[in-house]
Each structure stands twice: as C-alpha cells, then as structure tokens.
Amino acid sequence: QLTYYKARDGLDIPAFLSRPPASFGPGPFPTVIMPHGGPWARDELSWDGSWWRQLLTSRGYAVLQPQFRGSDGWGRHLWTAGDNEWGQKMQDDLDDGAQWLVAQGVAEQGRIAMYGFSYGGYAAMAAAVRPNGIYKCAVAGAGVSNLTRIRSSMFQNPYTREAQRDTVTGLSPLSEAGRIQIPIMVFHGDRDTTVELDQSASFVAAAGSSGMDVQYHVLQDYGHGPAWSRATAAEQLSYLESYFRTGCGGNGL
After folding, report:
1. N or C: which end of the chain has fewer CB within 10 A?
2. How many Cβ atoms are within 10 Å of 8's Cβ, its own excluded?
3. Computed from CA positions of residues 171, 173, 178, 181, in that sequence, does the dihedral angle turn out positive or negative?
4. Residue 167, CA distances (Å) to 42, 87, 99, 155 in order
5. 12-18 and 2-6: which strand pairing?
6. Which residues are the active-site residues?
7. Is the pLDDT score of 192 beyond 90?
8. pLDDT tens-digit profile of 62-72?
9. Is the dihedral of CA 205, 207, 213, 218 positive or negative?
10. What does each C-alpha distance from 29 to 86, 113, 125, 137, 187 come to in angstroms?
11. Which alpha helices (DSSP H) does the chain contain, by range?
12. pTM of the model
C-alpha cells in the first residue's frame, strides 16, 4: 500500500508498505527497511521482479520501501532535497520510516533490519556505521562505500557531470567501516561494472577490525541489477532468507 510519513524535519515521505500474509497474525512484525537504488529512481506499486519483497513478506517480515529525499518521480522538491545529503538526511528518512512503523504497531522494536542494493546497499552500509542505530543488522548488495571513487566512475557524460556530480556528497561508509555498530552481510557480483566489486571488498576488509560479524559473498558471473539467471536469483534469495532466518547477529531477525 502507498502511505506517507513525516521525516524529522517535517518533509512528507511517500513509501510502499507490504505486510506478511494474514496467517502471520496482526503484528507487530519483524521488519525490513528496503531503500531503492539510484538514488535518482523510485519504487513502483507493482510486481517486484527481483523477488526480494515477495520473499521477505512470505517469510513473515513487513517491508517498507521509503521514497526518501533524492528519489525521482515524486516532484522536484523531494528530488532536490537529497542533494549533498548522502548518509545524512537521506538516511534520516529511512530511520524515521522505521520508527514510524513501530509507532503504528507494524514493526517490532528491536527486530528491524535494512536491506538494499546499489544505492540501497550504500544505505545499508551507512546504517551499519551510524552510532546509536535502530537496526539489528543490515544487508548490502553491490553497495557504494567510497563516494570519491563512485563520483569519478558515475559521471562520464556532460549531463550527469554538470547536473548531478556535485550533489553526491556526504558520508563515505568506508571511512567508518572499522567502527560498524551492527552485524552486516555484503554481497556483490564479480562482473559488476556499475558499482565495482572493490567498493564492497574494501568495506568488508575495513569492517573486519570492528569485532562485529561480517559476512561476504561474491556472486560469480553476475553484474549489476536484476539477476542474469535463475541460478543467480536463487543464490541471492537463499542468502537473504538464511541470513534473516538464522543470522543477523544470531537467532535471525
């Protein structure tokens, strides 16, 4: 369902909320906050071709997909409000959505995780390094950990070089990876040319000194975005299912 909640600075944030089947009861539920990629993109109220949302709800998790500031397709005000706010107000929007779900009786406090891919993977890394966070664990797929490196690789044409490059500033999770606050699982495709594998590998290496549980999977013959094959899709889904069922710092989400 399409819903709206207030960010801490008063901005209205649209979001898509998906609940588990009725057989799981009325809630509150263990919950996954799932920010989209881009970040200049948006989610749609349609079938999720990645199967991520369907997998999670079928296993009893509520899923919130916030259309955080910086998201495209919701008006210029929301879109430009994300400029220079990577890991900052954009991240606040995700946390505020989680807290709103707790207040609504949908999310169970202490059983909230973040999962995202691409920019969503960046957000999951950022969630892991934020002090006094609200998540039990995070999962980052093909996440950006170094903003300086991604700026140099993303902006290769005149439009993005002039119009968007200077809006990509904020937190680089790599700089704080050694002080992550929660367990995290990271996965990345070995043929990813959009977000290079080193973005995850460097983060995982640095996070190793944190004392937190850090799991890392490199998916073979896989690029960026939707899985290229049923086997790759099944591998992704199996990592998600098993981590939230038995991992996430122990005993699952």
Report:
1. N
2. 11
3. positive
4. 18, 12, 27, 11
5. antiparallel
6. 118, 192, 224
7. yes
8. 999 999 999 99
9. negative
10. 28, 12, 23, 16, 25
11. 52-58, 76-80, 89-103, 119-129, 147-154, 158-163, 197-207, 230-246
12. 0.94
Interatomic CA distance for residues 16 and 18, integer angstroms: 7
Contact partners, residue 80, CB within 8 Å, separation at least 6: none
- Tokens read off for 201: 């590998």
* Tokens found for residue 182: 């929660």
Beginning with the edge strand found earlier in the chain, give each strand of the sheet holding 62-66 in spatial order: 2-6, 12-18, 62-66, 29-33, 107-117, 137-141, 184-189, 214-219
Predicted confidence band at 155 (pLDDT cuts at 50, 70, 90)? Answer: low
How far from each other are the two terminal CA atoms of the chain, in whole angstroms?
23
Neighbours of 252 (CB within 10 A): 17
Least confident range from 11-20, 62-71, 138-147, 155-164: namely 155-164
Q: Which amino acid is at 17?
A: L
β-sheet bridge partners, residue 187: 141, 217
What does the mean pLDDT of the chain come to?
93
Distance CA 244, CA 253 (A): 5
Asked if 6 contacts 13 with a C-beta cutoff of 8 angstroms, the reply is yes
